[in-house]
Specification:
By secondary structure, the chain is of the alpha+beta class. It contains 4 helices and 8 strands. The chain has a 3-stranded antiparallel β-sheet with strand order 1-4-5, with helices on one face. A 3-stranded antiparallel β-sheet has the order 2-3-6, covered by helices on one side. Strands 7-8 form a two-stranded antiparallel sheet. Helix 1 (about 65-75) runs antiparallel to helix 2 and helix 2 (about 85-110) packs antiparallel against helix 3 (about 125-140). The chain is globular and about 40 Å long.
């Protein structure tokens, strides 16, 4: 089962970057939850690499922050332990981790109104943001992926 194992502890570096100050783990749910992504203390992240022009609509930090840090780690390393991964796998882990976070938010905060049980408060927004983020990395993430692989076109 997909899950985060610790709270995310960070130190602010500058206007864009943060440093992880304590180890942070995420179990990838597919196929059996035994694959664990570990982000060590000292890793630097920019959270979601959203172009600055869109920050008012979708800031780099948000409810999806933990998932963004895991994604940054996967893009940086291109592997989970000895398992070499491709960009789509990293992007799919991001999507899965955002689903885990969105579900946790709904469970913690409940529904917005008792008379509107079909749409929990924040669920529709988180679903939309998740879809935008996932499509964004699928469309434009190749540049960052290649930069970390040191592959030049």
């Amino acid at each position: 089962m997909a899950a985060f194992f610790a709270k995310l502890e960070l130190e602010y570096v500058d206007g864009r970057f943060w440093t992880v100050t304590a180890p942070f783990d995420y179990a990838v749910g597919a196929p059996n939850g035994s694959t664990v992504v570990r982000v060590e203390a000292g890793f630097t992240t920019d959270f979601a690499s959203v172009p600055k022009i869109f920050w008012n609509l979708l800031p780099p930090t948000g409810w999806y922050g933990k998932a963004a840090v895991i994604h940054d780690k996967l893009y940086h390393d291109g592997r989970i332990g000895a398992l070499v991964i491709n960009q789509k796998y990293a992007d799919d882990v991001l999507n899965e981790a955002m689903c885990v976070l969105a579900a946790a938010w709904v469970l913690e905060h409940g529904r917005s109104k008792p008379d509107a049980p079909q749409i929990p408060h924040g669920e529709l927004r988180s679903l939309t943001e998740r879809e935008i983020i996932y499509r964004g990395v699928r469309l434009g993430g190749w540049a960052a992926w290649r930069a970390h692989r040191k592959v030049r076109p």
